[in-house]
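hiii so um. not sure if this is the right channel but i have a protein structure encoded as tokens and i wanna go backwards to a sequence. like what aa goes where. can anyone help
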């Protein structure tokens, strides 16, 4: 056995391993060689217990992922609901405040119609109207527009030849709204076409169709009294 090993070493030649830290040619420090054994291509396959453990971990991972996705969806819905409620509360508060200012705006409008909006009062009134306009308050209602019960409130009614449909001929009080929300309908005087008046008058002036009862004649309805004959003479006693 010893002779065979010596023969093999003689054929291969001596093996020289340079373990110096400094490369004599470049003068740089050498990195230590990785002496770990390479992974064998025929590594040991995982056992049945390892496979079950891996499947269990994958199942738990999928469950946790679903939990996180569900939690994220709930949080997103919560944020949307909070934002929607916050917007609704803001709109309600704004509508309440602006609704309390409507009588003041009516007074300003009447003062403007009578040319009493002058001086410092005019400056304050214009500033107030500008502020409520920035907050989204809009006035509506113009004379001559068709009557709409959704946005108009009729306080006066008349007939006219100048209209062909129910029309708001006069704005008694302007209406106000915020966006799609109506704070107060426009209070108007409504005029209808005179053709409607003529139809109503004709229907009211039609004579009654009931016939008056005729008086009953003596020949048709009178009956002779008891104790008298047909000529009206009384029957004598025997």
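sure thing!! here u go:
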């Amino acid at each position: 056995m010893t002779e065979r090993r010596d023969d093999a070493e003689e054929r291969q030649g001596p093996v020289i391993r340079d373990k110096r830290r400094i490369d004599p040619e470049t003068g740089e420090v050498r990195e230590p060689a990785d002496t770990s054994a390479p992974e064998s291509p025929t590594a040991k396959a995982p056992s049945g217990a390892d496979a079950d453990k891996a499947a269990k971990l994958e199942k738990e991972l999928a469950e946790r992922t679903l939990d996180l996705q569900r939690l994220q969806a709930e949080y997103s819905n919560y944020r949307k609901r909070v934002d929607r409620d916050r917007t609704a509360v803001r709109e309600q508060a704004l509508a309440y405040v602006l609704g309390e200012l409507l009588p003041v705006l009516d007074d300003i409008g009447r003062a403007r119609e009578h040319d009493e909006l002058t001086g410092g009062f005019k400056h304050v009134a214009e500033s107030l109207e500008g502020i409520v306009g920035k907050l989204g308050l809009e006035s509506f209602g113009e004379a001559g527009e068709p009557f709409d019960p959704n946005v108009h409130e009729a306080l006066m009614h008349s007939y006219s030849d100048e209209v062909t449909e129910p029309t708001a001929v006069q704005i008694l009080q302007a209406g106000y709204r915020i966006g799609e929300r109506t704070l107060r309908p426009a209070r108007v005087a409504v005029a209808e076409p005179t053709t409607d008046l003529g139809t109503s008058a004709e229907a009211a002036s039609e004579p009654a169709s009931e016939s008056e009862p005729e008086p009953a004649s003596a020949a048709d309805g009178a009956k002779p009294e008891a104790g008298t004959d047909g000529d009206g003479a009384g029957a004598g006693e025997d």
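oh and The beta strands are 137-140, 145-146, 152-160, 167-173, 175-178, 181-184, 186-193.
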